[in-house]
Amino acid sequence: KKAYRKATLCVHPDKVQQRGATIRQKYICEKVFDLLKNPPSVPTLAAVKLASWLRGAKFIVDWHKFGYTLSGLSHGRSHIIVKIYFWFEKYFRQMADGAFCVTKAMQHELDQNWGIRATVLYDQSASLMEKHGAREFHL
């Protein structure tokens, strides 16, 4: 587990950028880590879990928000859709091999209420994209 955490921090796009990576290297890292951002978790979590199992890859979730809370805003907290969404996220979180999140508050929530140990990796501004043309980001 220690080696896994070290490896993920070595190739995360933000960490690579901080170490002076080229635009192309950062772009590749972004594609690797852009496998799953949450939400939408229905049906994305199931599809990515299946794909990771079929390919023998790690199933890593990048938690930004909980889908069930967003669904609750439009349907109401006690709606059946919100309950199903909550169950879905809870079920598939148990299958994840690792997790990232973008704030310490989300890290605390994941740890205390979901039993998920997530690594905080703060989002970076789009200033890197603004400084360089889109052509540099294509392989």
From TrEMBL:
Q: Which membrane topology describes this protein?
A: Single-pass membrane protein
- Which pathway does the database say it acts in? Protein modification; protein glycosylation
Q: Can you name a GO cellular component term?
A: endoplasmic reticulum membrane
Q: Which GO terms describe its molecular function?
A: mannosyltransferase activity
User: What top-level branch of life does the organism fall under?
Assistant: Eukaryota
Q: Kindly give the InterPro entries that the UniProt entry links to this protein.
A: ALG1-like (IPR026051), J_dom_sf (IPR036869)
What keywords are annotated for this sequence in UniProt? Endoplasmic reticulum, Glycosyltransferase, Membrane, Transferase, Transmembrane, Transmembrane helix
- Name of this chain's protein: Uncharacterized protein
What organism does the record attribute this protein to?
Zea mays
